[in-house]
Amino acid sequence: MNFRFITAVTLVFICAQVMCTRANASLISNGDFQTCSIDGWSLDTDAFGEPANTSDFSIINNAGQCSAQVSVENSLSVNFNNSLITQLDLSDVANGVSLDLSFDWIFSGFDLQTDTESDLFSVVLNDGINIETLFSVFENGSGTFTTQIDNSYDGFFLEFVLEPGFNPESFASTFIIDNVFLTEEVDVPTPHTSLLMAMGLAIIGIRRKHQDKRGAL
Fold first, then answer.
1. In this structure, are residues 151 and 97 in contact, taking their beta carbons and an 8 Å threshold?
2. 46 backbone φψ class: left, alpha, beta (φ>0; ψ -120 to 50)
3. Residues 109 and 119 sit within 8 Å (Cβ to Cβ)
4. Where does the signal sequence lie (predicted)?
């Protein structure tokens, strides 16, 4: 029997067993926008649903790497919130299991950038009664945001909201989002010490037997 082959198979088995965690597929449909569309997402303006003019919602396609962009313009005649929304279905997530929510963001605008009067980009969880703000920013910037939730948010809407400011120098703002992922971390049991010891002894025994045969030749 080939000792090297047995050793390789055993090591693969051990490596697979000691893997501590694995991430399931994202629970958010088209969160990375790699369909290069906003499929799976709802558009909303001032909580009245999808606007007739959807020009403030677009897809940025950078050589096949796509992301979503939402804009808002501020004027005397136009002053409203624009939101990109998806509903969470966590019905298959067990109680007590943590879910990692993350997304990449870029926010840019032409405001005074003060917290009371500027355009505001925020991310909220909303079920129509309860609203929880996860993230908000009024200054130009970018980054990756990560937090944890659980299945108590089943049925909630995850909303990326752009709110216009209220000052004479508030003109227009834009946010870009990408890689919106909601994943469940599942523990994989590590093998018992006795199992590893037994496998190690088996390898040693096979090797000695192989060496004895070679010595007898």
1. yes
2. left
3. yes
4. 1-25
CATH number of domain containing 29: 2.60.120.260
171 and 69 share a domain? Answer: yes
- Same domain, residue pair 30 and 56: yes
84 and 34 together in one domain: yes
Q: 135 and 201 share a domain? A: no
pLDDT digits over 87-137, tens only? 999 999 999 999 999 999 999 877 666 666 778 899 999 999 999 999 999
Residue 90: strand, helix, or coil: coil
Do 133 and 201 lie in a common domain?
A: no
Q: Is the pLDDT of residue 203 over 60?
A: no
What distance in Å separates the CA atoms of residue 62 and residue 78, rounded to the nearest whole number? 30
Local structure of 14: helix, strand or coil = helix
Cα–Cα distance measured from residue 160 to residue 180, given in angstroms and rounded to the nearest whole number: 11
Task: Judge if 204 and 119 occupy the same domain.
Answer: no
pLDDT confidence of residue 119:
84
As for how many domains the chain has, the answer is 2
pLDDT digit string (tens) for 148-183? 999 999 999 999 999 887 766 667 889 999 999 999
Domain range for 112:
22-187
- Rounded to whole angstroms, the Cα distance separating 128 from 135 reads 18
